[in-house]
Amino acid sequence: MSLPALDNLVKIGQLKAEPRNDAEVRRMLMMARGLLVDAAVATISASTRFICAYSAGHAAALVALRWHGYRSENRYTVFQSLTHTLNWPGERWRVLDAAHRKRNLAEYEGFLEVEESTIAELCALVTELIADVDKLIKP
Length: 139
Description:
Elements: H1 4-11, E1 16-17, H2 22-39, H3 46-67, E2 70-71, H4 75-80, H5 82-85, H6 90-109, H7 116-137
Antiparallel strand pairs: 1-2
């Protein structure tokens, strides 16, 4: 399904148009669910739970993008595209962008300070994201 705003991102090289692969979509959504389960395991460190929740969100957002026939190698674009793939308002996908910035600090600078409330908020949002993706792919 072509979306005009995303087609514009293809034209400027921010996205690639690529036919949907239903098996890939199912695998990625299953991975998102598994990562979200891992994010809830209390015996795992807070930093690892945060990374799991973040990764679950990225995988689910990528599923929405792939469902519509696009791919991105830029994580920010994957989250930003939720405005078009799932009609998510900016205040929802920007929570994922904030998590992305925290994740980058951890990955590239070795610094991650995360509160339990942040993990809980991220897990709740990703749960909603996965539910919205489920509605998208199962009409």
